[in-house]
């Protein structure tokens, strides 16, 4: 059967890929695998030998997927789109360098390169910028979500993946310092804390590790808290929590990183991730309820602008696919 277009992803399926494939009417091919990606390689090879799609989107990383898609582009003559994560060009680990860096040269064979922010586009080699566009992540869908009242006590939520780039301990120490000073607040940390079991030692009645939550309960918790934290030490990785906060119209404390500053111009408070600065920013929000209200209003405006920009890019991509 001939498919007009497919979106291929290996290793991990991002929400971005799942949403874009649906919005663009593309067949989604996801193969869960680990380096050296032999299973993913041969399954994709089999699909490309049997089918003749007019357009192929690839989720980057990993690099070997781009190599395979580029090779078959010369044979099948399809339109090739690379949806590139920031760490494809700027790996944050030795493994990332090995599995991605050698394959970045194949980007020049792509017809279009998608990135999630202007900050990432600036990192692309100048020769490739002419065929690169900023495609914002699709809006977060929150079906059948009932409006929740905020907790009486000032509450923060840190949606965490428990990756090394997240300053989780700094947030915990900052909150404990504020409590010692007499501030009344709670910190909820969501996600699979099993990835960093040593951090559970900080748990108490004010520092709550929720574990992984189903979507409905997760979004209800985000609504109930006064402020959402989206923190990272990496300069070009866009946090899903930041976008979730936007669509829930919640104030954000964000890491002072280029990727965030190119998108979030209002509705947020920036931090350098240090304990000292986190104490300063959190206490400022606790003491100034009018600032919280203003940030909420600003976030509503941010949301409108973001959706407008997203819809514009979506129309462009749909038109490209339609003409093929």
Could you walk me through the main structural features you see in this protein, from its secondary elements to its overall organization?
By secondary structure, the protein is of the alpha/beta class. The protein folds into two domains: 5-135, Rossmann fold (3-Layer(aba) Sandwich), CATH 3.40.50.2000; 154-306, 3-Layer(aba) Sandwich (Rossmann fold). The protein is 42% helix and 18% strand. The strands form two sheets. It has a six-stranded parallel beta sheet with strand order 2-1-3-4-5-6, sandwiched between helices. Strands 9-8-7-10-11-12 form a six-stranded parallel beta sheet, sandwiched between helices. Strand 3, helix 3 (63-76) and strand 4 form a beta-alpha-beta unit. It is elongated. The mean pLDDT is 91.
Which helices and strands occur, and which strands form pairs?
Elements: E1 5-10, H1 15-23, E2 27-31, H2 38-50, E3 55-60, H3 63-76, E4 79-84, H4 86-89, H5 94-100, E5 112-115, H6 118-121, E6 132-134, E7 154-159, H7 168-180, E8 185-190, E9 207-211, H8 215-224, E10 227-230, H9 240-248, E11 252-255, H10 258-261, E12 268-271, H11 275-287, H12 289-323
């Amino acid at each position: 059967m001939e498919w007009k277009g497919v979106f291929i992803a290996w290793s991990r399926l991002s929400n971005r890929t799942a949403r874009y494939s649906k919005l663009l009417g593309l067949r989604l091919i996801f193969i869960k695998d680990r380096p050296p990606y032999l299973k993913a390689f041969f399954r994709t090879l089999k699909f490309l030998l049997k089918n003749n799609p007019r357009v192929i989107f690839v989720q980057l990383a990993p690099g070997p997927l781009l190599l395979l898609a580029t090779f078959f582009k010369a044979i099948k003559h399809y339109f090739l789109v690379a949806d590139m994560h920031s760490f494809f060009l700027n790996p944050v680990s030795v493994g990332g360098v090995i599995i991605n860096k050698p394959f970045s040269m194949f980007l020049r064979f792509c017809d279009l390169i998608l990135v999630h922010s202007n900050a990432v586009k600036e990192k692309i080699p100048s020769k490739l910028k002419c065929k690169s566009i900023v495609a914002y992540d699709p809006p977060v869908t929150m079906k059948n979500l009932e409006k929740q009242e905020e907790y009486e006590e000032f509450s923060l939520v840190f949606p965490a993946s428990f990756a090394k780039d997240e300053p989780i301990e700094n947030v915990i120490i900052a909150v404990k310092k504020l409590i010692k000073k007499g501030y009344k607040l709670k910190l909820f940390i969501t996600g699979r804390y099993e990835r960093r079991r040593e951090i559970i030692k900080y748990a108490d009645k004010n520092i709550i590790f929720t574990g992984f939550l189903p979507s409905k309960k997760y979004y209800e918790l985000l609504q109930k808290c006064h402020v959402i934290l989206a923190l990272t030490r990496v300069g070009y990785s866009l946090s899903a929590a930041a976008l979730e906060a936007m669509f829930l119209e919640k104030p954000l404390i964000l890491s002072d990183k280029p990727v965030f500053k190119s998108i979030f111009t209002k509705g947020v408070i920036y931090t350098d991730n240090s304990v000292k600065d986190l104490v300063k920013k959190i206490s400022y929000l606790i003491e100034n309820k009018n600032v919280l209200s203003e940030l909420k209003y600003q976030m509503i405006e941010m949301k409108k602008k973001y959706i407008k920009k997203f819809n514009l890019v979506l129309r462009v991509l749909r038109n490209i696919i339609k003409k093929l």
